[in-house]
């Protein structure tokens, strides 16, 4: 067990956190994702806290870790919060809504820091605007056929096959892919943690 644990099964988050050069272990929280709010920022912040806290409970007997990182991503469009699709029809419904429009991607992050044997939570969220060109029914169906939408918020991967329909983006690209690493490093700095001091 490393002193840093990423509480996420997302391969994208693992890749993005690895860019910092930090060494970390991955422990996945298996719990149900539920947030009783219609505000996307509040939603992802709460879910990121739930994921990090669940992993803290799982690892309570371990001396390490000292820092647990949880994250959650949703898409917000016209007042609706879009998570992962339940099936292909749901994926089509989401993509049909998103094509030709601008929507927001929110990722919430919780840093759980161990201070004198108790966990202190530091939670924040980041928003990125994404605009898509109009996309036809046939193009959407062909994309859904690839299976790529099924494990992604809003049913698309900007880093994958749906990237060809992006007209513009305002904000952090990494935030759309699932982890705003720039903000994460900045927030750690604000907490007095310089990643250069803990890389090895
Ligand atoms: C919008 C968008 C989302 N996504 C992904 C990021 C997240 O992995 C996923 C949203 O689901 P999440 O529930 O945030 O995360 P997860 O289930 O993949 O992993 P875990 O709960 O274990 O942390 O959608 C992309 O990869 N590309 C995109 O363009």
Automatic annotation (TrEMBL):
<feature type="site" description="Important for substrate specificity">
    <location>
        <position position="159"/>
    </location>
</feature>
<keyword id="KW-0546">Nucleotide metabolism</keyword>
<keyword id="KW-0378">Hydrolase</keyword>
<dbReference type="GO" id="GO:0005737">
    <property type="term" value="C:cytoplasm"/>
</dbReference>
<feature type="active site" description="Proton acceptor">
    <location>
        <position position="72"/>
    </location>
</feature>
<dbReference type="GO" id="GO:0009117">
    <property type="term" value="P:nucleotide metabolic process"/>
</dbReference>
<feature type="site" description="Important for substrate specificity">
    <location>
        <position position="12"/>
    </location>
</feature>
<dbReference type="Pfam" id="PF02545">
    <property type="entry name" value="Maf"/>
</dbReference>
<dbReference type="InterPro" id="IPR003697">
    <property type="entry name" value="Maf-like"/>
</dbReference>
<feature type="site" description="Important for substrate specificity">
    <location>
        <position position="73"/>
    </location>
</feature>
<dbReference type="InterPro" id="IPR029001">
    <property type="entry name" value="ITPase-like_fam"/>
</dbReference>
<protein>
    <recommendedName>
        <fullName>dTTP/UTP pyrophosphatase</fullName>
        <ecNumber>3.6.1.9</ecNumber>
    </recommendedName>
</protein>
<comment type="function">
    <text>Nucleoside triphosphate pyrophosphatase that hydrolyzes dTTP and UTP. May have a dual role in cell division arrest and in preventing the incorporation of modified nucleotides into cellular nucleic acids.</text>
</comment>
<comment type="similarity">
    <text>Belongs to the Maf family. YhdE subfamily.</text>
</comment>
<dbReference type="GO" id="GO:0047429">
    <property type="term" value="F:nucleoside triphosphate diphosphatase activity"/>
</dbReference>
<keyword id="KW-0963">Cytoplasm</keyword>
């Amino acid at each position: 067990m490393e002193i840093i644990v990423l509480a996420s099964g997302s391969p994208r988050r693992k890749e993005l956190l690895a860019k910092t050069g930090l060494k970390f272990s991955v422990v996945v929280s298996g719990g149900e994702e539920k947030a009783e709010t219609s505000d996307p920022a509040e939603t992802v912040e709460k879910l990121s806290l739930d994921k990090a806290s669940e992993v803290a409970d799982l690892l309570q007997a371990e001396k390490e870790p000292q820092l647990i990182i949880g994250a959650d991503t949703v898409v917000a469009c016209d007042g609706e919060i879009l998570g992962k699709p339940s099936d292909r029809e749901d994926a089509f419904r989401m993509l049909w809504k998103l094509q030709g429009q601008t929507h927001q991607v929110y990722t919430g992050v919780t840093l759980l820091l161990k201070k004198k044997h108790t966990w202190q939570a530091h939670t924040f969220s980041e928003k990125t605007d994404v605009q898509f060109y109009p996309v036809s029914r046939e193009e959407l169906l062909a994309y859904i056929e690839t299976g790529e939408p099924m494990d992604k918020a809003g049913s698309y991967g900007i880093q994958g096959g749906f990237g060809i329909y992006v007209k513009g983006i305002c904000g952090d690209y990494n935030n759309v892919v699932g982890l705003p690493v720039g903000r994460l490093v900045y927030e750690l700095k604000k907490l007095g943690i310089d990643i250069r001091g803990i890389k090895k």
